[in-house]
Amino acid sequence: TIQYNSDDYVELGEYKGLEVSLGSYEVTQDDVKREIEAALLSYPVYEDTDKDTVEDGDFVNIDYEGVKDGVAFNGGTAQDSVLEIGSNSFIDGFEDGLIGVKVGEKVDLNLTFPENYQNQELAGQAVVFHVTVNKIVNKSDMTYDKMDDAFVAANMSSQGYNTVDEFKKGVREQLEASNETTKKQETEAAVMLKLKEACKVKGLPEGLLDQKIEEYMGRFNTNLENYGMKLEDYLSTSGMTEEEVNVQAKELVTDSLEGQL
Question: Kind of pairing, strands 106-112 and 200-201?
Fold first, then answer.
């Protein structure tokens, strides 16, 4: 740890009574509506149809069970699952194997998981899916204006909402809490900018900048590794040179240290 007294490096200016300008943090009805509309995209509505044969592009309601060596494997079983044929949501052969199947019909799909499948126990393994086509449905998105208590109770009860009013109130409270956090952060940032105008940092403690840059780059490289990347990969995708990354790091760390002082 590098020991220092900040008084030796900062010349204080007039720091009392600073005024900063901020935006509005009020949550409006339009804000609530936009947030709800975005959430509704995750809860589509499916309506039954009279169609009796599966075609490419259909949404089908199915039951399925995946077995390997005659034993059902984890994650391979579901009931009343809706699948879009042609979406490539399932492994190769699953969706194509349902084309031409009649509603109410049961089929066995003999398939093989890809070699690079994330579950190593199933990667490259031959399995059988027992599938029942329950019905073919139409998919539509629920809208803000059509949303009713029954829909909210069916889809949002796990979040504590059973009526439209409860849902709207809950979303508003979440937005207000988020805005309050943002307001605090932006207030602190604005005050810091004012402080830097009023006060003067005369220098940095010896060795502190180099130490903090090293720590920063250590975190930077660790973050890259978490994404399976190396510095060379980052430089290639970002179009930056290593020198430019180092300059950017120095600027960021210097700004942070001056703020701390």
Answer: unpaired
